[in-house]
Amino acid sequence: MSGLNRTDRPYDIVLFGATSFAGALTAEYLAGHAPEGLRWAIAGRSAEKLERLRERLPAGTEVGVLRADVSDPASVRALAESARVVATTVGPYVTYGEELVAACAEAGTDYLDLAGEPEFVDLMYVRHDARARETGARLVHAAGFDSIPHDLGVYFTVRQLPEGVPLTVDGFVTADAAFSGGTFGSALNQFARQREMAAAARDRRRHEPRLVGRRVSVPAAAPRFAKEVGAWALPMPTIDPQIVRRSASALDRYGPEFRYRQYAAVRRLPVAVGGVAAVGAVVAAAQLPAARRWLSDRLRPGDGPSPEKRAKSWFSLRFVGEGGGRRVYTEVSGGDPGYDETAKMLAESALCLAFDELPKTAGQVTTAVAMGDALIDRLRAAGIRFRVASSR
């Protein structure tokens, strides 16, 4: 029986890692937007910190407190068995994440995380997708700014284009925002594991069924000046194109042949050149343990941008889709991408899995495949904009 139907469990949603920077924001969002009758709990290693977080939530918030630690497998299994949906912010996921994925796959519990780590996502597919399909668990990774606006933005764009014809979509990302210590640490960890990441990707390709009768590609994007958005377009070392590829492979609506490319959009050439150099320098430094420790010390886990900084932050993803003689320009946009909007996306995804009428899926699935239109509707109602800018 699917985890969706297991209403006998004490909680609809459990938020694991609730006292982290992103976790606390997600708890606050859930407390402010919980539908009547929601049974939910916050979970983590420290009961004392969880109690302090509960005291900070609005008066009258009914929320359980569960202690669980990834170093204690029995506590993680008990956590998975107590909920219909578990959402976790505990990263780096490649270090701390697998025990919970395994427990949710075994218990038939729907699982959500904020993982932007390709190695972790590929390893979890190889090790736990098959069992999750048997139990009905939906394992959804990258349910924050990585990669919901990209995945659902492409899905939204494709739905504006003709059916049954080859389609192409280019995505252009602009944002003004800051990192938290946890996010920066996860990125450094990923940059330092290039060989492991490549090995996990190869292993996944050996296990994934081949696509028959359709073709989906996400070629490496080359730097260029993009006239369609009036900006320099730079390739981005993120998980988003891989997530989009998996959605396109799973859904026939993306057409018999589909191609996606993703870029950072930068108006001024000197800024573009400097950005490429900066990313290259961080990737190179991450290969050296001493340099990686020094960089990690600049921003520690638990640190994050102030409410004032987050209030001024924003993101915009512009998509150019073409096919069947039609071209469409769409946009997905919102406020602070890394934290306020990521907390909103994770919380709304959990509510969507728990309560909405959704396609029947199981195993490792993307947000577009698992939730699609229902999650777009939720995010629009929560203030994230999906719009068609123009078409011809």
Fold and architecture overview:
Helices cover 45% and strands 22% of the residues. The protein contains 16 helices and 15 strands. The chain has helices at 21-33, 47-56, 73-81, 93-96, 98-107, 118-135, 148-158, 181-191, 194-207, 240-250, 269-286, 289-298, 307-312, 340-355, 367-370, 372-381; strands at 11-16, 40-44, 64-67, 83-88, 110-113, 138-140, 167-176, 215-217, 224-226, 231-235, 257-266, 314-323, 326-334, 363-364, 385-391. The strands form 2 sheets. Strands 7, 8, 9, 10, 11, 12, 13 and 15 form an 8-stranded mixed sheet that branches. Helix 1 (21-33) crosses helix 14 and helix 5 (98-107) packs parallel to helix 6 (118-135). The longest helix is centred in the first third of the chain and has 18 residues, at 118-135. The N and C termini lie far apart (46 Å).
Largest sheet: 8 strands, mixed
Percent helix: 40-55%
Range of strand content? 15-25%
* Quaternary organization: single chain
Instruction: Give the integer mean of the pLDDT values.
Output: 88
Q: Which structural class should the secondary elements be placed in?
A: alpha/beta
Please report the distance between the alpha carbons of the first and last residues: 46 Å
Summed up, the helix count is 16
The total count of strands amounts to 15
Low-confidence stretches: 1-5, 270-286
Shape: globular
The value of Rg in angstroms is 20 Å
